Amino acid sequence: MRADFDFHQLSHFIAVAKAGNFTQAAVEIGISQPALSRSVQKLENKIGEPLFERRPRGVKLTELGSFFLVRANQIRDLVDDTFKELTEAGNRGLVRLAVIPTIAPYLLPTVLKKFSRRHPEIRIHVQEDTTQNIVRLCKDGDIDLAIVALPIHEKYLEVESLYEDELILVMPKGHSLEQKKKIRLSDIEEFPFITLGEQHCLSDNIADFCKRQSIAPVMIERTNQLTTIQELVALHHGISIIPAMAEQLDKSQRRVYRKFAGEKPTRTIALLQNPYRYKHRFVGLFEHYMREFAGSRQ
Question: How far apart are CA 234 and CA 219, in angstroms?
Answer without folding.
Answer: 17
